[in-house]
Write a structure and sequence with these properties.
This protein is mainly alpha-helical. The protein has one domain. Helix content is 86%, strand content 0%. The radius of gyration is 11 Å and the shape is flat. The two termini are 16 Å apart. The mean pLDDT is 75.
């Protein structure tokens, strides 16, 4: 369930990135993915 949630969040952020500042959204997405990985590994 958690993985599916992260996937949906990733899709949402990817769609947002097409409309907003690419660099900012890429940084935000990378931070979100990193946080998700940390939670999964914990």
């Amino acid at each position: 369930k958690l993985t599916r949630g992260l996937g949906k969040a990733g899709l949402f952020l990817s769609n947002s990135a097409t409309y907003e500042c690419m660099n900012r959204d890429i940084d935000f997405t990378a931070a979100l993915v990193s946080a998700g990985v940390i939670v999964l590994l914990r």
